[in-house]
Amino acid sequence: METRNKDGAWPSARPQATSGASEEGEDFQGQPGICGLTNLGNTCFMNSALQCLSNVPQLTEYFLQNRYLEELNLSNPLGMKGEIAEAYADLVKQAWSGHHRSIVPYVFKTKVSHFASQFLGYQLHDSQELLSFLLDGLHEDLNRVKKKEYVKLCDAAGRPDQEVAQEAWQNHKRWNDSVIVDTFHGLFKSTLVCPECGNVSVTFDPFCYLSVPLPVSHKRVMEIFFVSMDPRRKPEQHQLLVPKKGKISDLCVALAKHTGVSPERMMVADVFSHRFYKIYQVEESLSSILDRDDIFIYEVSGRAAGGENSREDVVLPVYLRERTPARDYKGSYYGLMLFGHPLLVSVPRDRLSWDALYHILLYRLSRYVTRPSWDDEEDGDEKDLEGKDSLPQPGHGSGGSSQDPGLEQAGSSSGVVSGSPGPVDTSPGPSHWPQRVRHKHLFTLQRVNSNGTSDRSTFNEDTQAQPYIAIDWEPEMKKRYYDEVEAEGYVKHNCVGYMLKKAPVQLQECIELFTTVETLEKENPWYCPTCKQHQPATKKLDLWMLPETLIIHLKRFSYTTSSREKLDTLVEFPIRDLDFSEFVIKPQDNLAPELYKYDLIAVSNHYGGLRDGHYTTFACNKDSGQWHYFDDNSVLPVTENQIESKAAYVLFYQRQDVARRLQPQAGSLNPPASSACDAPPKSGFMDVN
User: Fold this and answer.
1) Is 495 a residue of the active site?
2) Which residue ranges have biased composition labelled Low complexity (predicted)?
3) Which terminus of the chain is more exposed, N or C, with fewer CB under 10 A?
């Protein structure tokens, strides 16, 4: 629906109108610049970038005073025929008119999508990417250079840095001269050193923003459960600090420091749905383990065959199953359902009999399984167990198959999966296992496959396959002797809760990291003109000249060949007096220290993860000096102590001498821009944290 203006004109008839008529009109009078932007559908990234740019004082004044009309470059083949500049100008004029609480940036979004196909549709994008496109588009639309002359690029060739830097900046201005260059462009010094011949190449390159890395920890915190061989001890929850690119052996070494158990006596397994999803080998990489995985580390005997008289142990994976009535209209058979946590049990090879295994398992379960007296066994249970082979010999069951790995028919024959992960059992095949003596027991034992089922189709005589054992419980016996609450119990080690807190990082640390020497990757070598071949050279970037408004992009999104993550490290950044004098290598003017000091004017925030999230903005109004929080069409005042957070993504800093220069432009009724962002009154403020 479109509403006719008071003068009788239709808003859509204006050639530069944003088809975003707001809720208010000329009757509404608010603070200029305090205007929200409607979310058109995942366009919070665009709104955040626009609010930041709109609160850059000199750029906004440039558009409000219509100075851009004289500099529109409609013939620039690299530009957008002035359409991006006009759409942005119309947006700024509406936002700073004071007549709207919020506007709809539909036309601007349409223009952006037309000239940058990556922003087509309504998918969520990166506010920094949109900002980069917008600055480049505005620059080309407003480039004062109509005819670009040929510029020959020259290397330093031993000349003084000041001479080379001045030449590079003049060459840059011959091709690029706009309000964007005046406001946002600075100069790098790039030094490349060939590792082969030692050739040094020095160049000076312009930049529009600094993308600074965050100090990335090469460690990760992993949460695991340690299961001791002592049945009296409950499982222990630990948080271990291990190398991100480490191996399973590193995880065991870290746990050994907490428990005193030798790493050689540990086995690591991923438990999922009451079964072993995977049993890891010590040389496997930790990168295959996700934070959401349930990792159990079991203590085992660690004894292996070392001589004729040495005692060798076999590690058996053990599952728990309960016999339950199957969903059958005749009720003619029972099923077996997995429950509880599986175990890895060390069994001496010379005691590898069913009866000995029963007593070993009964001992391992003794914390939560009550051993009955002979009277209890005779009282009431004999009738239930009579006539049944409580320990049926593997391979001589009644047969059957399972439709669900967690539920199977009782009495099916044992199965073995060839090539299952874990230790190898070289004991005789199931048909040669010792015959068991008939006794009354709490549970029965069955040889199963790695899924916990004894499907005949998976059975074979491969003696090199990993044997899995299932403990099968009758419902009445489980109810009477198995303590489920105790079985699920665990204790927390003292380390839990102390290692998750990350130390905050200073913004200056990120800038130092940006200017450190790095070696180029093999995929991106440098061609050395002396060696006449590509070399993995060392590269160092230094700051030579800084712009009036400095944009600092915190590289929170980390992408590597093995992982990708968003870094939620808290970066502490100053709101006033960010001093770059120690980072700028150009000879400095000691009489003008304000040339190297900056004050914060805007912050683009990102909340969420890699694939989703939400963008908002903190910005300081150039007229009132008041900080506001822009969340799409919602705008609320905030205090300065709310600005710093883990969500800070793109920072906008203004040089202090520029703020003083802009003071006369502010109205006499408004505070000067240099008092920027003074702490506002405390009443009626939103707590965005």
Assistant:
1) no
2) 401-430
3) N
